[in-house]
Here is the input.
Amino acid sequence: MRQWPLLICALIGVSGLSLLIGAASLSDGDGGWLLMVSRFPRTAAALLAGAGLALAGVVVQQVVQNRLVEPALTGTPEAAMLGLLAVTLIAPGMAIAGKMLVAAAAALAGMAGFIALAKRVPRSDPMLLPIVGLVYGGILGAIGIWAAWLTDLMQYLGTWQLGEFSGVMIGRYEWLWAVAGMAVLLYAVADRITILGLGEAQARSLGLNYKQTRALGLVIVSVLTALVMVTVGAFPFVGLVAPNLVSRWRGDNLRANLPLIALGGGVLVLAADVIGRVIRYPFEIPAATVFGVFGASVFLWLLHAAPRRAHG
Amino acid sequence: MIKVRGLGYGVGDTVILHDVNLTLAPGGITALIGPNGAGKSSLLHCMAGLTTPTQGRVEIDGLDPFTARDEARARAVALLQQTPVVVSRLQVRELVSFGRWPHHRGRPGPKDMEKVEEALEAFSLTDFAERPLETLSGGQRQRAFIAMTYAQDTSWMFLDEPLNALDPRHARDLMARLHGLSRGHDRSIVIVIHDINAAAGWADRIVAMKDGRIVAHDASAALLTPETLADVFDTPFEVLRHKDRPVVISR
Amino acid sequence: MVDRHVAWLALALVALSAGFLLWHLRAPYGFILELRGAKLAALICVGAATGAATILFQTVAMNRLLTPGIVGFDALFVLLQTLLVVTLGGVGAAQIPGALRFVIEAAVLMAAATALFGVLLRRDAGDVTRMILTGVILGVLLRGLASMVQRMMDPSEFAVVQQAMFASFGRVDLGQLIAAGLVLIAAFGAALRMAPALDVAGLGRGTARGLGLNHDRVVLMALMLVAAMISVSTALVGPITFLGLLAASLARHLTDTHRHIVLIPAAALIGALILVTGQFVFERLLGSQSALAVVVEFFGGLLFLWLVLRRRQL
Here is the structure.
């Protein structure tokens, strides 16, 4: 259990930094007000978004039985983006709850498409699936860009494509607290999700309703992706990096790992945000850009380090 | 004449060849036998100048394959590696013509064409010459690759496990062709082989390897004794004689 | 002797180019022709460079799915451009004439790409999918690094880079176009000269070396040529990831040969044809400006998936 204290310390440290650092100084004027309206919401949003994406990553990995996959490698964010585009075009005045719902539904459809593709990809080679997912996402993305071109919505697209927290303030991020609710739900069904990872035949012989459980898992992933996408934008690699790092540390007990994975994802994303704030002070670099570089490096390392307990 | 002196090779800390000394007279078929990981393939690649050893020397008909120009080396010795993979769309004749590369470096002349046809003929591939490689059966494809090696027109031909994935009929057919080449065509053939009886039936000489060393080197009939085989493979064998040829039974 | 397919493709490109130049031509003729001519030249350069580079890269990578764009050659170019501006300062970089800057950037890319991708190809030679995935993620990483460095620059310097980097077909720097054209012609000539050696290299490292080919040198040279060609296309328009895949796959399918003396020109011509046709259709017929790259990405992506799922040879 060495990892818990370490992660808690990291959480406290990074959160502290996040609360203290920013373009406006806390010492002049109304520091407390700034803290409440901007810094605290921003810190919470980064932690929640990171946690949500990390959890979504675990579930996807269990469902497709492949460790090198995560929501961003399944076309889910792009599908959610298409949904958002559609809402913006058809019903621009829709309440945020409605937008969220449409985005989640679109994400679910995107995932379903990916699962259909995944069935046709040979299992023997775990590295093939992420490639397929990446290109699938690219195609959905191209459709999105095309539609946005035609309708002059490129600007919107930009805000969804690149996740960042500089616009987060009180009243604009609260939906992310739903991530906590999803986390509780996931914790309750963790064992079933683990069994999903054994594959359909094995899961069914253990008496699990495979299709139902898989559908539940996919709904959880879609909702998490949509929540993050609509409030702060897309963050590739979080769902890949956090679960893989945790399972390298601690092995594969999902229920025991879930809180760690969520915490790890949150801390990593918050750290990326803090780095983005200080590296070119007083300008900000989007957290997704910072995390993209880190995440891609970790991915390369995962690919070339010994494939410990990799799912086939 | 091939001379190998004090050859050593290793990857990282793993030593694959220990101080190998070997002299092969030209002519005939030499079979390299030994358990998996004995270093047969590595020895073959070192002798062909394709793997640089950590120590020792190799001389092929007076040529040092490590310092010679690439095409000079490839005109002295041809090596067919285990299960070569080709992704290009190739017809059989195109594949075989690659054997002429060390001779023409991209500008084939009439003599090269002639040699290609001769190689196709020698391996009964003339009828398949226009067929794409991927439409051939495993045995035919293997033959096409060996024909390419043959078209290289070297006095030494090295073949790394050419019988892999061949059924008994194709295996026999191939060994008979190689036997013919080693007799009438002035080719010296060295082959890595797992089927001891194929070695017994067709090879003139056998070199037995174990743990990166040569443990025996003799005429086939003299080398294939239960004692030597048990020593090489760590498993008991019985050796019978049938029409003056040794027949090996593992038991 | 020119291959039949190549001759037809060349003819088609000439006809299409004439159409591109002359369609609804209005006064002032000279000015419009000059504008269209520069654009046409840029399109042809980019398409040809991308197509030819992809064939070269696929041969040395022993893989029909990878393209220079997918593994991030272009991202490396953008990263190097950005670093150049960072080291020279925005003003310093702006003072170098476009043509000279392009030549410098191309040279740096040739060195960097040869080192990076040379290692990649050697390390992962045995494991094809791992190589693809590594290449893809490397591309993502390089793109991320480039955008990170860009954002770390002063906004004013960034404006300079953006001007230099995201040139579109709309406004082509004539000096840069000429420099790029010369580099492309030289690279193309070198590629055709080594075509027979590339045929042998396509047999794989082991077999090629057995035949007396200095495989490592051929790979190195091919990578340098790829880098030169990709500098041409990236400098002129910026990345189009899947264009190369489309051009190379179509060229292989159409000519049905392994001979690079045919494949390289065919892929180059097809690449140019795709871009010129696309631009013509979008600009003249649909009146839409910049969607071409997106449409190429869309169909290129579909082709990629189809190739993976069919998986005859990965």
